[in-house]
Amino acid sequence: MALSFPISTVIFSIFFWLSLLLGCFGDGASKDPSKSAPGCDNPYKLVKVDNWVNGVAGETYTGVTARFGAILPLEVDKSVKLSAVVANPLTCCSTPSTKLSSSIALVARGDCSFEAKANLAQSNGAKALLVINDDEGTIEMGCDDDTPATNITIPIVMVPKSTAESFRKALQEGHKVEIGLWAPDRPVVSFSVAFLWLMAVSTVATASLWPEIAKTKDSEPRYDDFSPKSASDGATSKENTEEIINIDVKSAIIFVISASTFLVLLFFFMSSWFVWLLIVLFCIGGVEGMHTLIVTLISRGCTCQKKVTLPYFGETTIVSLIVLIFCLAFAIAWAITRKASFSWIGQDVLGICLMISILQVARLPNIKVATVLLCCAFVYDIFWVFLSPIIFHQSVMIAVAKGNNSGGESIPMLLRFPRLTDPWGGYDMIGFGDILFPGLLVGFSLRFDKENKKSWASGYFIWLMVGYAFGLFFTYLGLYLMHGHGQPALLYLVPCTLGVCVVLGLIRGELKDLWNHGSSSTPTASLGGA
After folding, report:
1. Which of 186, 214, 365, 383 could anchor a disulfide with 518, C-beta 3.0 to 4.6 Å?
2. Cα gap 243→292, rounded to integer Å
């Protein structure tokens, strides 16, 4: 019991464009450090702030180092662990009356420079300085160009207001508070990207091969149009072609214009209600995709066709109804637990099912359209990730994709995998667009091979799959070589897929066939239609 054609096609069309619009982004490039005063050239680093109250370990908090002062150790067993003392005056802008010897001094931000606080704390015996921010979050603690900081030899760390308040409250109650500071390095590329790479490559391969996977001996697969249908196929052929949406050159050009406009609007007017709308659409599309895939697989090995009649939906099989209930429950459970540590599993399952279904519905007719679409996407990706900070002072694509100003909600059009080897946690991610764009071309290559009865070696599919796999590998290699700076995946994926297809076509003398393939046929639907 899948959604009827108009509803499912509209959902897949909307999500196709939203996924391409928001799903092609890399990690943000960090700012190059500006020229600074002597002794003020330390890199900003995240700090783990461990604490013990009366010897009992508490929650580990996060802070950030200053551009000056001592470097914190990388390992926890070498961390700076000392008793905490609240400075008096709290801002530490004049000689403190409290004894700071061999302790970590807690001081408030304000009234004087960070270097002045550090100098006074150090001169009174403090071994480290913990600066309390005046709100949640932290700021960059640099130093003035005219203020040397070479004489400061203690570590300086800033923590959010709420973190320091818990320490101050425990001290006011007479408890002994000890604080440990250490700053482990964050790996530029985590081993987890191997699993993300595998998921992306497997999704493209599965989506391309799905018509063959879904094919049964007694029935034609839902999306199989590898072979031309004879006139005797009649209604079956018409039903299959009605569910195919062909992308044309016009839609590829319109995409760049409309997507860029929409992206700028989202950048300025992003809100939690819009992210919630995307979450709802994601769940609907994921349910439709998962239901279609599961029912198709069950139908291959099960001949049970017991049916029931339901209002609005009409007649449907019991198996289809049970699967639909399961898929709905799965999507609802993910939506409820979407902020839990394990929610990436449900998001990836729904996302993969959605993308496989989209790639059965949306298709490229030839590499002429593929060239226009992928080149437009290539320019779109580069501009909005790399060049937009020149105009907007930050990457528009990254700001939108991360859900800035969205009330803590994040956009779901991503495959995620936890950074297992990163002491700071977090996720490695890849946008749907980095899978759907190349997936459209890879799917076309397999259909072209089938129609021209090509073997694996003489065809294009296997070589484009290899190209996609290497393109994604080069993306993560570039991320490593550029020390984590932003790397739009399409920067590598387009040359490794479209480039491979064009070069092979030239060598084999088939470029004209690839370029004009299907141009004489009339598509039943188009993503660029008015």
Report:
1. 365
2. 13
